[in-house]
Description:
9% of the residues lie in helices and 36% in strands. It is mostly beta strands. The longest helix has 15 residues, at 36-50. The protein is globular and about 50 Å long.
Amino acid sequence: MSEARRIWSRFCPRHRQEWSVSTVIDRKRRAHRLGAATALIAVAAAALMLASCKVTGTPGHQSGHGSTNGSPDPSTAPPASGEVSAPASASPSASASSKPAGTKTPTPPKTGNTAPGTRPTPANVGVPNGTKLTDLAGNDGGNSYRVQKDGTVLDKVHIKGDLLITANNVKITNSQIDGGVLDEYSGKKYSFTITDSTVGPASGCMTSPGIGESNYTATRVHIRGHGDGFRASGDNINIQSSYVYLCSNPGDHSDGIQTYMTGRGLTLNNTTIDQRDAKDVTAPIFIVDNGTVDVAVTNNLVMGGTYSIQVKNAHGSVVVKNNSLVNKSWIYGPIEADCNSPMEWSGNQLVTIDNNYNITSVVGPLPCK
């Protein structure tokens, strides 16, 4: 991908499906580096392309955390700064000496931690209510931020673009990332945890995944403003007690969780995935990659999609248990699964819910057939 296209994709969400970092990795998993002279030409070309760039919006969601038409103009982003990486620290926030002095941003919308067994909703996951966030200046082009030091801790920060992780054991807590979080670059995969954080723009719709690709744990995360929620493209992925509200752009294939070249160890537990308002969709749960080994899909509440729960081609231990699917929220059918394989399918049910995702009635069991 040319440098001009890379720069253009950062500023023009309309073209993210073709030119996002995640998509480039999917297609060829290559990264190109250009000389200084070529880069200058590319920057000039990108500036011309911006003239035709138009943000694609999506209708708002009743919770107040969904997308609305329009998006902040990214062309006002400040120039890239030098690399600043916050080292691991026992303090509740990244060390002041390890990052530039930031500016306080408004307190995010009311959220809070989910108690064990509580259904995740926009009101109880994401950045906790009352958290004061500090803007973290971009260091990877515009508002995007890149972490390159192992053990980095990002706590109570606001990143106005994407977060690219090219280090291991990175920890993100109580933070807001307005773009996506990606931990694969130039064919190499890294590792991170993200907890009590909000990922995605408050308005507009980004086709690219909210969180990916491998070796990550996401707990009490709110993903909004993305066509894909979680990308599973490797080993050791653990998603717990999170909420995903999906949008779509024309031509998207929106998924709540999507497997692609997935490896061993995928857990999706106690997570709410709402795809009802997205138009160009596949499924809230789309686990169909034949490289997937050892999968557990348990205690989730899902709605929307073509076939809402799709679990196929997985090997090893495959468990789909105690999930609730909103009745008649699908386009074609409730499930598409390898029902004749040695999969544990039990306790799944069809339900109705209210506007706050409370289950109001159990329509009946959801058999695998």
